Amino acid sequence: MSRTALTFLPRALSAAFRPARVASNHHRVPLRAKTIASSASASSPSNPNPNHEGVTSIAMELKSANKAHGGEVRKYTHASSSTGTDMTFSVYVPPAAALSPVPVIYYLSGLTCTDDNATQKGGAFKACADAGVMMVFPDTSPRGAGVAGEDDAYDLGTGAGFYVDATSAPWSANYKMYSYVTKELPALIEANLPAARGLKSITGHSMGGHGALTIAFKNPTEYAAVSAFAPIVNPSAVPWGKKAFETYLGSAEAGKDHDACELLKKRGAAFPEFADVLVDQGLDDQFLTEQLKPENLEAVAKEVGQKVSVRRHAGFDHSYFFISSFMEDHVKFHAKALASKAQAMADAVDVTADPALLAEFAKTAGKDIECNAAVAWGPKQPLTNEVVIVAPPKAGEVRVKVISNALCHTDIYTLDGHDPEGLFPCILGHEAGAIVESVGPGVTSVKPGDHVIPCYTPQCNAPACIFCASPKTNLCPTIRSTQGAGVMPDGTSRFTAKKDGTVINHFMGCSTFSEYSVIAEISAAKINPRMPLNKACLFGCGVSTGLGAVWNTCKVEAGASVAVFGLGAVGLAVVQAAKMAGAGRIIGVDLNEDKFAIASRLGCTDVVCPNDHEGIPIQSVIVGMTKWGVDYSFDCTGNVEVMRSALECAHRGWGESCVIGVAASGKEIATRPFQLVTGRVWKGTAFGGWKSRSAVPKLVERSLAGELPVDHYVTHAIDAKGGDVAGATNEAIHALHGGDCLRAVVTYHK
């Protein structure tokens, strides 16, 4: 379990959680007329994408920002080089974008529309928030270009730019909507907003459906997917398209380069097919037979082998009532395709086991290994560097070469003598990234060279294990008794001190304060080798625990209010998960105000320091801030007084409070029964409820995809120079006690 303790623990009881000064940014969201000229590496209110080095930024003026489903709907204007006019676009930035760049769906609107129509009527925001995708809504035409006749017809000029680059005067000077949508706007988005480079798709309605299809068919490698609502699929053959193409391009014939049906006919064998093209069409659409003609697209697609799924819906017309009814389907369609493309991009990076490393492992397999380890000889004693002998793995065991180890409060908790199961001498450590060196008889799930995270909560998956079979728990008891006794499943240790032969105890089934360790196969979570092990180690305990407490144990929903007590690594993981879940208000509580900046960056809308108010219980302050309390509260301190405060600030009638931190031996929790009678629920979590070998690899994949960043947790990186594992680990312990450390990661091997 994650025995987290705040760095201010000695003061926590004396402070008794006095009420806090509330430093809130909860009501700062609407921004007005703020000019942004952010470089790719800068930090600005526009959340520029730090991954896009070398992208020239363009000044954008933020006209408005409004909260929606945990994210923001923003409207920007900027001077366009494509159109020579000021252009306007709206964008929905989902809550996930606060942590890392997200994929983008471009939505192209139809005749007479602006960016406002779809943002106000399209109903996309909740689906985008749930899927973790951004949606961009460009305007349909230049505004104020001053072209004669541009305002005379609803289906031309400012009423309909048709997403082409005009070649005929006087339109050719300004009507460059194809270049704007395909080049200028994506570059602008990627330079100034948290948009994942190379991960975009496109959809649209009516004229915008025409634009989406033709843009995707002309640039098939640029877009992960394409869909459309009631699109004009064959515009060079229908009145709307003929008029537009004759005006902008000189002839309907020239418009065939912007015609989905014609583009498919000319596709050729080299055209990369989309897995599917989703089209929704209302059967009561007044433009169905004369202008839209979806059957034309179906016929050509069948000829060339491009899958197109046209869904026809009785009772629906051409309006936004129709679009909003099926918008969620389209967002999910695009999100799935974008996720597949992200995985394909990741798979394109070939990472294989180092042949030299495998040769090294072949020499040591089946033999004792001598290596350096940090040994704890007794409680409250500094770790000492010792040469230890690590025996080969026995049946069902795995020997691993530990690359990096993150220091967790649990290790300090045991070293300080607070753990009733703490046995000495022992090798502590349980939050590591490692490589399999050799395996014992019967091991099939991992092999030498595999990258693994040792997990203190095992997962045996045996048919007879009711715990592994149940979705209600992750507490597999298969090796619990021997793990608690400091030995391997057969009742013996794999560690001895070289200097005198002393048998050294294991710790939490991991013992990763050693250059080599032996763990049970059922404790080894095999992960993608593309994940650097100095980051992968974070998923071995604290970060996973905080994330799972929110997503698994409490299942925090969008719009919920949350209070997090203790803003260490576990507490910040709770904040991060709550933000990603779309929580509407997140209150962070800590005595160390230095942690407030990162807490706010990760999602806290309010931060509370108990030292700023005397005599009022902190739970009363939070209830006062929220009227009835928060929907969910989390204790990440291990302090039983704080646990009570967390429960009692939970919402009357339905509030849930989750205990994450583990208290010192002998401590008990207390509250008045009335707190529970009036609807509050007190619960706890171990490793966030994750079934380790199944879940940890998936968390790593989400991190690799950019959805779940963890770099911000590593505040101290330390090398065990010359094999001095103990010296480096003692340095990490000192850092952890310093108050400005979230995770200190010690690297043993490069």
TrEMBL record:
Q: Alcohol dehydrogenase-like N-terminal domain: which residues?
A: 395-491
Q: What keywords is this UniProt entry annotated with?
A: Hydrolase, Metal-binding, NAD, Oxidoreductase, Serine esterase, Zinc
Q: Does the keyword Zinc apply?
A: yes
What cofactor does this chain's UniProt record say it requires? Zn(2+)
- Superkingdom assignment: Eukaryota
Q: Where is the active site?
A: 206, 285, 318
Residue stretches making up the Alcohol dehydrogenase-like C-terminal domain:
569-700
- Give the GO molecular function terms: carboxylic ester hydrolase activity; S-(hydroxymethyl)glutathione dehydrogenase [NAD(P)+] activity; S-formylglutathione hydrolase activity; zinc ion binding
Q: What is its EC number?
A: 3.1.2.12
Which example biological process does GO assign this protein? formaldehyde catabolic process
Q: Which InterPro entries does this chain map to?
A: AB_hydrolase_fold (IPR029058), ADH-like_C (IPR013149), ADH-like_N (IPR013154), ADH_3 (IPR014183), Esterase-like (IPR000801), GroES-like_sf (IPR011032), NAD(P)-bd_dom_sf (IPR036291), S-formylglutathione_hydrol (IPR014186)
Task: List the record's Gene Ontology CC terms alphabetically.
Answer: cytosol
What's this protein's family per the entry?
A: Belongs to the zinc-containing alcohol dehydrogenase family. Class-IV subfamily.
Q: What PANTHER family does the record tag this protein with?
A: ALCOHOL DEHYDROGENASE, ALCOHOL DEHYDROGENASE CLASS-3
UniProt protein name: S-formylglutathione hydrolase
Organism of provenance: Micromonas pusilla (strain CCMP1545) (Picoplanktonic green alga)
Organism phylogeny? Eukaryota, Viridiplantae, Chlorophyta, Mamiellophyceae, Mamiellales
